[in-house]
Amino acid sequence: MTSIAEGARRAAEADIASVAGLAAQATAELSELRGGRVWSRLEARPDPQLESLARDLQADDALVVVGTIDDAVVGYGAVRLVELHDGSTVGRVSDIYVLPDARGVGVGEAMMEMLMAWAGQRGCIGVDSLALPGDRNTKNFFETHGLVARAITVHRKLPQ
Fold it and tell me: Is residue 92 part of a domain?
């Protein structure tokens, strides 16, 4: 019987094309959810995703990680430092995605632990992220890591 090793590691330049593909899948998947159409235009990783990921990979105020099963990249996550009005910082998890067939085995947990540890090592007062309304799996995932709602964004679509 072979054991499957899931984990997370810092993304390397060689991973960026794979990660950009995962980012495109994440955007397509989340765009279909309630709130997803506006999210994809406002908060999602901007196109071209490859370029924005390459910038984050090189930035001192950001971390990009990949989630793996054995050696295969099956997910990615990203966090960026955001300075608050009082000079303190928050780690903003802008991306966290695992391929549907690789969910539920600990890949997302391993990536989230890396992202939160990195933010903590940089003196962040907290970690923020976003879950779309009705996306219970994402909400539950974040809650297992101690993230709870601190604000609710409301929206009304206007006729065009």
Answer: yes
